[in-house]
Amino acid sequence: MAENNWTPTPLDTSGIELDAGLLTLVEALAENAHAHWARRRFTEGWRRGAERSDIALTHPLLVPYPELPEPEKEYDRELAVETIKVVLSLGYRILPPA
Question: What is the pTM of this model?
Answer without folding.
Answer: 0.87
